[in-house]
Amino acid sequence: MKTWIPDGRFLPYFTWKQVEALDKDKSLVIIPTAAIEQHGHHLPLATDTLLNNYILGHALRKLPKDLPVYAVAPVCYGKSNEHIGFPGTLSLGRNTFMAVLHDLAESLHAGGFKKIVFFNSHGGNHSIIDVMARDLRAEFGLRVFCLFGGGGASDLGEQEARYGFHAGEVETSLLLAATPELVHTDRYTVNYIAKVGDPGVLKPEFAYATYAWLTRDIAPSGVMGDPNPSTAEKGLVWCDEMSTRVAAALTEMHAYENLLKL
Ligand SMILES: [Zn+2]
């Protein structure tokens, strides 16, 4: 898989002696979490994994050179059962995904690391990562942080900002910037899971009353959003904004100390 992570921050490129020599009290280690799942007719299955790496790679380049922040290889497979039925989607069950996060954190803890951050780019993983973050804090005394995506895209229409969360304008623009050779610009489709202004309190997302949805119930092509207005120029701007926010968050996480220590 293509990587934008700078070599000097990518732990898999280190020897174990080099990792042993790192200052564990100061180091922050990122575990990227993503997915291999359908992204409509026009984007590759690896979209979430590619975008995760693209934004994180740019964020890491924005950090001061001497800030000890490192990434491990991404967990490419996530909990993607909302997309089951679309060939090529590869999903881990909830228990498997939790076990993977647990065991990777345990390995980092055994290696002496004290601070880890999950950088997640797939919505279906969020709730599990939240649970695991607290459990890993309790079990190993690790300082665990969560970063969910890059914090949104500027100048996006309200409908797309709310309900364009899968293979829509944002993801398509980012991939047009990152890997244009993988975007089929002649195969765009449009589906919205709901509309801004719909009556009633029951919503698919972002509300106090929600329902569990499967993609095949509501989006025949697999797209949730409108990719038509996507451009590489927007992707470059959004990558810059998102990676700046991610870099700022990583800097705060690195500096974070709690008053009470386990
Ligand atoms: Zn995605």
Describe it.
With 262 residues, the chain is an alpha/beta fold. It has one domain (26-255): Rossmann fold (3-Layer(aba) Sandwich). It contains eight helices and six strands, in the order H-E-H-E-H-E-H-E-H-H-E-E-H-H. The chain has helices at 16-20, 47-61, 94-110, 126-140, 158-163, 169-178, 215-218, 232-255, and strands spanning 28-33, 69-71, 115-120, 143-148, 202-203, 209-210. The strands form two sheets. The chain has a four-stranded parallel beta sheet with strand order 2-1-3-4, sandwiched between helices. Strand 3 (115-120), helix 4 and strand 4 (143-148) form a beta-alpha-beta unit. Helix 2 (47-61) packs across helix 6 (169-178) and helix 3 (94-110) runs parallel beside helix 4 (126-140). The longest helix has 24 residues, at 232-255. The protein starts with 15 loop residues before the first helix and ends in a 7-residue tail after the last helix. The structure holds zinc ion.
Strand content range: 5-15%
Q: Which structural class matches the secondary elements? A: alpha/beta
List low-pLDDT spans. Answer: none
Number of domain modules: 1
H/E series:
HEHEHEHEHHEEHH
Overall pLDDT, averaged?
95
Q: Into which percent range does the helicity of residues fall?
A: 25-40%
Question: Using DSSP, what is the number of strands?
Answer: 6
Gyration radius over CA: 19 Å
Distinct ligand kinds = zinc ion
- What is the overall shape? globular
The CATH C-level class name: Alpha Beta
CATH topology: Rossmann fold
CATH superfamily: Creatininase
- Distance N terminus to C terminus? 38 Å
Strand line-up across the major sheet: 2-1-3-4
Q: Per CATH, which architecture?
A: 3-Layer(aba) Sandwich
Instruction: Figure out the total of helices.
Output: 8
Most strands sheet: 4 strands, parallel
